[in-house]
């Protein structure tokens, strides 16, 4: 162990985030291309531009630390991106969009956790300028997560055949299968 300090851990975590963000700069265009909802596509494109800004903020921080941003691979982001690309082959239409939102929200939550930690470290280390740069990014990650939740409401309902409530969805499924036992169906049993 060369330098067992919080500062070294801070730098290591920033490198991890830098690598995670650069992976996303490559992944987001693919997610935008795969999305069928125009709104979701636009959302991914907008977050791509923000993500490029996240990379730039980290580069600025590394410059003031006089350190290189490179040298770490974020294995977690690699896995999240991989899972995101797997659903592209598995699903289509609104169900694919629902799956893409699910994958994207996992990414956002991972980033939110990572930025929350480095912000706390920056504060302890007295790096107030870096702390505020990282906080700007954290806010954008949180906003993105909220936008995805908003988008998911309509998209999940569409993926569920246009029904907003699961109870209605069951009735609908039963109807369309022409099963004449809706009245006798016990609560909690699948159609
Ligand atoms: Fe980001
Ligand atoms: Fe993000």
Biggest sheet architecture:
none
**Tell me, what's the shape?**
elongated
Oligomer: single chain
Helix content: over 70%
| Topology as a string of helices (H) and strands (E) | HHHHHH
Overview of the molecule:
- The chain is mainly α and 191 residues long.
- The chain has a single domain, classed as Ferritin.
- The chain is elongated.
- Bound molecules: fe (iii) ion (2 copies).
- The site of one fe (iii) ion has 6 residues, from α2, α4 and α5.
Features of the shown structure:
Ferritin; binds fe (iii) ion; 191 residues; disordered C terminus; mainly alpha
In short:
77% of the residues lie in helices and 0% in strands.
List the helices and strands and how they pair.
Blueprint: H1 6-34, H2 38-65, H3 75-90, H4 93-124, H5 128-159, H6 166-176
The protein binds fe (iii) ion (FE) (2 copies).
One fe (iii) ion is lined by residues 21, 51, 54, 111, 137, 141.
């Amino acid at each position: 162990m060369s330098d067992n300090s919080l500062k070294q851990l801070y730098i290591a975590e920033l490198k991890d985030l830098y690598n995670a963000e650069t992976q996303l700069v490559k992944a987001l265009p693919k997610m935008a291309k795969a999305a069928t909802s125009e709104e979701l596509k636009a959302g991914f494109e907008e977050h791509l531009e923000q993500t490029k800004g996240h990379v730039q903020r980290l580069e600025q921080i590394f410059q003031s630390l006089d350190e290189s941003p490179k040298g770490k691979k974020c294995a977690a982001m690699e896995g999240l991106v991989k899972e995101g690309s797997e659903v592209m082959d598995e699903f289509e239409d609104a169900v694919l969009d629902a799956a893409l939102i699910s994958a994207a929200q996992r990414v956002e939550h991972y980033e939110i956790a990572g930025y929350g930690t480095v912000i706390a470290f920056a504060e302890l280390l007295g790096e107030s300028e870096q702390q505020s740069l990282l906080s700007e990014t954290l806010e954008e990650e949180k906003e993105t997560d909220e936008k995805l939740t908003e988008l998911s409401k309509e998209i999940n309902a569409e993926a569920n055949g246009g029904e907003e409530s699961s109870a209605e969805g069951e009735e609908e499924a039963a109807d369309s299968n022409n099963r004449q036992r809706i009245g006798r169906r016990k609560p909690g049993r699948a159609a």
